[in-house]
Write a structure and sequence with these properties.
This protein is of the alpha+beta class and 134 residues long. The chain has 3 helices and 4 strands.
Length: 134
């Protein structure tokens, strides 16, 4: 009797803390998004470039529970890995959105934070965030 009561309490506490299979799915989605983010960053080479038109910002999503924020990395559109970096970033955004959907119920509301893509330019053959031209 004591053993079955204890097991029931453990199961109940795990469910209350999000320790069920849903939390495993959430953690797996976070891990997959993180791995894809690392891949995209590794592939996003900042050089070569000769002009600002050869530079862009790689968009990714930072997740924290139900909250998210955009994150950008300048990269060269003419680098040999540019297409692979763009594809990995697109996959990362999809996986991050899935993780957000699977996140446990929020304790507090998310604050609204909008991060705009940086202006990018080619400085000394490398794509970098630069101050906007006035």
């Amino acid at each position: 009797m004591f053993k079955s009561t204890l097991l029931a309490l453990v199961a109940l506490s795990l469910a209350a803390c999000g320790g069920g299979s849903d939390s495993n799915d959430y953690q797996q989605a976070i891990d997959q998004a993180s791995a894809k983010r690392s891949e995209a960053i590794a592939l996003a080479q900042a050089s070569p470039c000769d002009s600002a038109q050869q530079c862009a910002s790689l968009a990714m999503v930072l997740t924290q529970g139900h909250c998210s924020a955009e994150d950008y990395r300048p990269y060269s559109l003419v680098s040999p890995t540019a297409d692979a970096a763009s594809a990995a970033a697109a996959d990362e955004r999809t996986l991050a959105e899935r993780a957000i959907a699977l996140a446990p119920p929020p304790v507090t509301a998310c604050s609204m934070l909008v991060v705009l893509p940086p202006h990018v330019g080619c400085v000394a053959g490398t794509c970098q965030a630069v101050a906007p031209a006035n």
